Amino acid sequence: MLHLDDIASHDELFAWTGRLLPQVIEPLRRGETAHYAPYDWRARHFGPPRPLPPAPVVLVEGVGAGRRALRPHLAQLLWLELPHEEAWARGQSRDGAEQREFWAGWLVAERRHFAEDPSRPFADLLVRQVMEGYEVLPGPAGPTGPDQQVTHGDGPSAMC
Asked: Residue 53 falls within a domain, yes or no?
């Protein structure tokens, strides 16, 4: 799994596609181990490179994972349905008072990102939290078609 919080930084909240594609997506597509330098949000710098080995499924998690530049590389796009205020509250609770200034800028940046490059309309599946667990529903993009790659079990991705 790749957390986009490891790819983004204070200076590049959403301008990280130019690093993600060559460092992660392209090596994985070739069946090679990817290497990326995770960002330390408290120290405000990138750390030593971390390996991400190829796998039948690699989950790219985080805001911006469904962006236009990445969609051609995705087998499926899942969208977690969560009200903005709840998502932001979870993040602020996780990060504490020391990241309060960051969150003020994040709210503006996230709104701008989705206004310019929405992800939800392209989601194959919608995931909603329910009382116990999660509910998975068809997304706005509709069911997976014959032109999309889907992972079936433990083998490599294959065309349907």
From this structure: yes
